[in-house]
Amino acid sequence: MAYVEKRGQSLRVVVRVRGKVEAQRTFPLEAVEEARKWGEEQEAALGVVGRGRGRKRESVAPCRTLQDAPEPKPAADLPSNATGYPLTLREALTRYLSEESPKKKGHEQEKGRIGSWLALPLADKRMVDITTVELVEWRQAEEQRRGCRGLPISPSTIRNKLAILSAIYQHARSEWAMPDLQNPVRGVKLPKNRKGRDVRLTTIQREELWKELRNPIRKPYLYYIARLAALTAMRQGELWQISCWECWDKANVIHLTDTKNGDNRDVPLSTEAVKVLREWWVEQGRPTAGPLFPDVVRPGTVVRSYQKVIRAIRKRNPTFPHITFHDLRHIAATDMSKKLSNVLELSAVTGHKSVQVLKRYYNPDAKELASKLG
Known about the structure:
The protein is α+β, with helices and mostly antiparallel strands. It has helices at 32-46, 89-99, 107-118, 132-144, 155-175, 203-213, 220-232, 236-240, 271-283, 299-316, 327-337, 343-350, 355-361, 366-373; strands at residues 2-7, 10-17, 20-28, 64-65, 253-256, 265-268. It has three domains: 2-46; 89-187; 203-367, Orthogonal Bundle (hpI Integrase, Chain A), CATH 1.10.443.10.
C-alpha cells in the first residue's frame, strides 16, 4: 500500500508490502498530483492490491492513503519556505564541525562521527528531505556491519552517531533560522546498549602489558600514562591536562579543574601512584612548570599508540584480552573497590555522578566475593 505523509515542507511517499518498504520518494509540498501518480505506478509495478497486513509504520508522522492526500494550496497561500530549506546535510555537518564541535571536550571523537556521516551519499541530500525511514535503514545496515577487528559495530557507536546527527538538527532549528525543520532521528529506535564489559587482567597479564609499554620502540610517556590510568581511574583527557606543580600536593592529591562532567575533582594518590609520578618527573629532569606530559599533543595520540601495543601483544599471545585504554579505568575502579568499600567514596575518586554508571566499571571476582561471605 502507498502512503503519503507531510514531512516539514515536503511530501514523502512510501510504498510498503507486508510491512516492508519497497519504494519511497520525496516531492515538493505542492506536487500532490505527481506524488499520487508516482505512488500508483509503484503499486501497479509491485502488484499491490488493497491494504496489506504490514507492521506499524516506523515514521513518527501520521500517515494517509494517497486518496486522502491534501489538495495543493494556491500559490499565494504557500509559506515563504514551502519548497523547503536548501541546506544539505553535508553543508550542515561541515559548518557544525568548524563552528560548534571545537567548543566541546569530545571534539576529537565527534570529528570522527561527523566524518562517518560525511562519507555517506545521504550527506548530499537536503536536511529537510532526510526521513526516519532512511535512518532506520542506515541503523539496520550498521547493525549488520563489522568493524576493523571483524566484530559487529557496537550499539553505543550507533547511538553516538545518531546523537550527533540529532544534535545538528536541533542546532539548525534554534541557531540557523530553520525553526520548521523536523528532526528525523527522533523517530528512530535506538539499539540497546550492551552489558558492561567484564574487564580483568591477571598479575601475569599485567606484567606482560607493562613490559611491552616499556619497550624502547614505544613512546616514553606511554607507560607512565597507562600506569597512572590503572592506578587512579583518571580519564585520558584528565591525565593529559596535569601540570607538574599539581602532582606534589603534600596530601598526595591531584587537583583536576577541567573534568569531563565539568566539575572540579581531587584525585587521591596511592603510594604506588606517587612512585610512578615521581619516576616520570625525575626522568623528565624535575620540571617545575608546564604540562606533566608535554609530548602529548592531543589525547587521541595516546589511544592510537596504546592500541599498537595491544596489537603487538595479541600477535604474540592471541589469548591476551583486548584491553582498551579506557578499560584501564575499569581496572582501577575494581582495584579501588577492594580498599574503598563505601560506594560514595569510590564515586568521589572516579568522578562518576551516578552509581548506576559506576556499576558498569566495577568488575569484581566472584571467588573474592565468596571468600568475604565466609
